[in-house]
Design brief:
99 residues; single chain; 73% helix
């Protein structure tokens, strides 16, 4: 927990170092959206293995609902810290900009 906080602080203090007029917040949001997409794809593979109860479910509406539900799960997971991709990618982007 402490390392997450420290990495957040170090990334935020390096925000002004983004070159070429880069916007730290927009970049971080784009990276977080990428992480949400990645997590959503992983969750979708998991949910595809769960059988559908034909008695009380199934059909096109359930497919659409499941897709939307999994998409929201991915977004919520990424916003709550995700699997750490956002911090790692941001650190790499900042490091690449300093070269």
């Amino acid at each position: 927990m402490t390392t997450d906080f420290l990495s957040q602080v170090s990334l935020q203090t390096e925000a002004p170092k983004l070159k070429n007029g880069g916007n730290y917040e927009k970049t971080r949001q784009a990276v977080q959206d990428f992480e949400a997409f990645f997590i959503t794809q992983t969750f979708q593979q998991m949910y595809d293995t769960i059988p559908v109860n034909e008695t009380f479910g199934g059909g096109q509406a359930e497919k659409i609902f499941r897709s939307m539900l999994v998409d929201e799960y991915g977004k919520m997971t990424a916003q709550s810290g995700g699997i750490g991709l956002t911090d790692q990618i941001m650190a790499q982007l900042i490091q690449e900009q300093q070269i």
